Automatic annotation (TrEMBL):
It comes from Piprites chloris. This is CKLF3 protein. GO terms for cellular component: membrane. The keyword Ligase does not apply. The gene is Cmtm3. Its main location: membrane. It is found in: Membrane.
């Protein structure tokens, strides 16, 4: 009978590519995973349908969501400080929600095949998931902006105190 490996020793290979469990359990990780899966399903549905002209939007959203999933999981957002990641993510979610809503309406109303209808229904679900993500990201942006706007008055206060002490 083989002895199980100790918990501290991880085998190199595919496990190194998997995101940490903490990230998968987080709200952001679950949303990005859901966005990736839904975008891939919608992409496959559009390929199999008469509405194949809509397949580029889900493909791009799948790739962007997958990139952000692995970027957040590997903490690239902490390594590259020059890019404000929540703003980028917010803009991606807003445009994805709008695009998915528009092409889902077109796919459901214009095409009669089952794959187009399925892509449209999954597109409406994806619209909701992206809307939830941009709502949460928007709240993070607002709290960041409020935090940033509270700093300058303190800076002005210390300058005013300095000017008051100079006039004495």
């Amino acid at each position: 009978m083989e002895e199980p490996e100790p918990a501290g020793t991880a085998q190199p290979g595919l496990r190194s590519l998997l995101p940490p469990r903490e990230f998968l359990g987080s709200r952001k990780g679950q949303l990005l995973l859901a966005e990736s899966v839904l975008s891939f399903i919608i992409f496959i549905c559009y390929i199999a349908s008469l509405a194949a002209s809509f397949m580029m939007a889900p493909l791009l959203e799948f790739l962007l969501a997958l990139f952000l999933f692995f970027a957040y999981a590997s903490k690239l957002n902490e390594k590259f400080k020059g890019l404000y990641w929540p703003l980028t993510d917010f803009l991606r979610c807003v445009t994805a929600a709008i695009i998915y809503f528009a092409i889902s309406i077109a796919a459901v109303s214009k095409y009669n095949d089952g794959a187009s209808k399925a892509a449209g229904v999954f597109g409406f679900v994806a619209t909701i998931v992206f809307a939830i993500d941009f709502y949460i990201t928007f709240n993070d942006l607002v709290s960041f902006l409020k935090q940033g706007s509270s700093d300058p008055p303190e800076g002005h206060k210390s300058e005013d105190e300095n000017s008051d002490s100079d006039s004495d």
